[in-house]
Amino acid sequence: MTVSIVSFTEEDIQTFKQSPETYQTFRKDIELELQSAHAVTLRGSEAQATALADFTEKMKTRLARKPLMIDQLMPSFPPVCRRLTPGPGYLEALVQPNVDVISTPIREIVEDGIITADGTRRQVDAIACATGFDTSFHGRYPIYGEDGVTLAERWKYVPETYLSVAVDGFPNFFTYLGPNSGLGTGNLLILIERMADYFTDCAAKIQRDNIAAMSVNSNSVRRFVEHCDKYFERTVFTMNCRSWYKGGTEDGRVSALWPGMVASDFGFSVS
How many CB atoms within 10 Å of residue 175? Predict the structure, then answer.
């Protein structure tokens, strides 16, 4: 994966200021590029096959100095099943002469180093533990809904929402970037903007019609959850990889991602 940095000249900036049409075209070109990558998330798509071949070739090229590491590090799952973490320079660092990649599990930490499962004792100066993060975090204070049920209890097994912004049984409660709101591809800012539009429309109706409480219908929540599950069956996200998209599991429900692409789901046009 290539990361590009664009520097704008003073002339570019002035052109954007003086020509809204030019700036709009520039913005739409960026959005088109982002949205066009969505096909890579679909199982069996040509884009997914191309991505797999491209990623595999690039990894082999960057690990060529230590070819035995290719089998160690090559993922068994397709691209995008987990969040892409390009890490510029990471693979190149692993093939340096002063770096050893040891995949044998650590059996014991001793005074001067570690002992791996094969009985080998290795002296080290420092140990850095990278154990991931806790996906069960519930926040600093409880959120109560009807009948005293907390949001943590409501979401204990399946974090269900309507369009990721509202939960049945929790009147006048709206969330930014709730369950099933993240994007596998595309521009998250558009999603946030549409959520804000939804919240403010609801708040305006509450004020205008003197409504005491507004709550989403439980059937709407159920149907959105069913829609999400059916959609993700067709994607690489439900393939066998451990991912925070699935709560840190290999085969759990995809509860972190939006079921689709921003452009089609929110009426955003890049043409």
Answer: 17
End-to-end CA distance of the chain: 26
pTM of this structure: 0.79
- 135-143: which pairs have CB atoms within 8 A and are 24 or more residues apart? 135/244, 135/247, 135/248, 143/170, 143/173
pLDDT in tens, 187-242: 788 888 888 999 999 999 999 999 999 999 999 999 999 999 999 999 999 999 99
Q: Is 71 left (phi over 0), alpha (psi -120 to 50) or beta?
A: alpha
**Does residue 257 sit within a domain?**
yes
pLDDT in tens, 115-138: 999 999 999 999 998 877 665 666
Q: Is 123 helix (H, G, I), strand (E, B) or coil?
A: strand
Q: How many CB atoms lie within 10 A of CB 41?
A: 26
Task: Give SS3 for 227.
Answer: helix
Instruction: Examine the fold and report which residue of 50, 72, 97 is the final residue of a domain before the chain moves on.
Output: 97
**What DSSP element (H or E) covers 59?**
helix 46-62
Residue 163 and residue 71 in one domain: no
Count: domains in the chain = 2
Tell me, what CATH number does 180's domain have?
Answer: 3.50.50.60
Q: What is the residue range of 47's domain? A: 10-97
How long a stretch of residues is the chain? 271
Are residues 173 and 247 both part of a single domain?
yes
How many whole angstroms separate alpha carbon 133 and alpha carbon 172?
A: 31
And the tokens for 247? Answer: 């709560």
Angle between helix axes 20-36 and 10-18 (nearest 10 degrees) is 110
How far is residue 101's CA from residue 269's CA, in Å, rounded to a whole number? 47
